[in-house]
Design a protein that fits this description.
single chain, 284 residues, alpha/beta, TIM Barrel, eight-stranded parallel beta barrel, binds 3-methyl-2-oxobutanoic acid
Length: 284
């Protein structure tokens, strides 16, 4: 049985919720099999799947394409699909239409969008249309240019107050969960205690109601920069690199494929072939 928003909300103040990103069918299946509660088809796919410098170029079509694959792979996990840059910023109408399209075409259980007080009207309209919303405040990567880079948010008194107001606004607008990205742990804990919505932290300490990580980061799949908040549960990059190198070597040495990876043909057929003129075979 797939988890519902009520199953997740029941966990508030009880057992923390686990969430990971996924962008394809097989990864979603494995994450789902591990019993992870929520899967996020993040617009981080721009960085980790498509090789863009940031998430700004990701389109609604990209999100739908990957979202469909993830939903097909997830049986029990609650699937959230990100609304990409400029799919909700321009107007409330855009927000509802694009959220509706994402939900209709992917069959996901909720959408996520970035922004606090300024985007509360979008969240309200989307939830009124019957689409559950996960809000995303703190470091909001779609605003990387306005923020002047990827920085911890809420460290000054003014910023901390703004984050508390953002959390309140998105919750009042109807968001059932709030992603808190790169927020000091004690502030994230305070927001969590104040909120009825579930808080899901990424770089926000263990006082949140749940945690989310980009799966490539936590598996050590990428060998580039890793944010401080990431814990590497595996070193997949090394494992894959070694496997690819060994494969290359074995191809070059003809030690792959071995007999076990090869299809056989009877001696008789081969003998008959050798005895036939090859030109005759080609003409027949
Ligand atoms: O796009 C994404 O992967 C996200 C997480 C970082 C929360 O929004």
């Amino acid at each position: 049985m797939r988890k519902s928003i009520f199953d997740l909300l029941d966990r508030k103040g009880q057992q923390p919720v686990s969430m990971l990103t996924a962008y394809d069918y097989n990864t979603a299946r494995t994450i789902d099999e591990a019993g992870i509660d929520m899967i996020l088809v993040g617009d981080s796919l721009g960085n980790v799947m498509l090789g863009y410098e940031n998430t700004l170029a990701v389109t609604v079509e990209d999100m739908i394409h990957h979202g469909k694959a993830v939903v097909r792979g997830a049986r029990q996990a609650f699937v959230v699909v990100d609304m990409p840059f400029m799919s909700y910023q321009a107007s409330v109408e855009d927000a509802v239409r694009n959220a509706g399209r994402i939900m209709k075409e992917t069959n996901c259980q909720a959408v996520k969008l970035e922004g606090g007080v300024e985007y509360a009207d979008r969240i309200k309209a989307i939830t009124q249309a019957g689409i559950p919303v996960v809000a995303h405040i703190g470091l909001t990567p779609q605003s990387v240019n306005a923020m002047g880079g990827y920085k911890v948010q809420g460290k000054s008194l003014e910023q901390a107050k703004k984050l508390i107001r953002d959390a309140q606004a998105v919750e009042e607008a109807g968001a059932f969960a709030i992603t808190l990205e790169c927020v000091p742990a004690t502030l994230a804990k305070l927001i969590t205690e104040q909120a009825k919505a579930l808080t899901i932290g990424i770089g926000a300490g263990n006082g949140c109601d749940g945690q989310v990580l980009v799966y490539q980061d936590m598996l050590g799949y990428t060998d580039g920069f890793t944010p401080k908040f990431v814990k590497k549960y595996a070193d997949l990059h090394s494992v894959m690199l070694e496997a690819f190198k060994q494969y290359k070597q074995e191809c070059e040495q003809r030690s792959f494929p071995e007999t076990g990876q090869t299809y056989a043909i009877s001696e008789e057929v081969m003998q008959a072939l050798f005895e036939t003129e090859i030109e005759e075979v080609k003409r027949s």
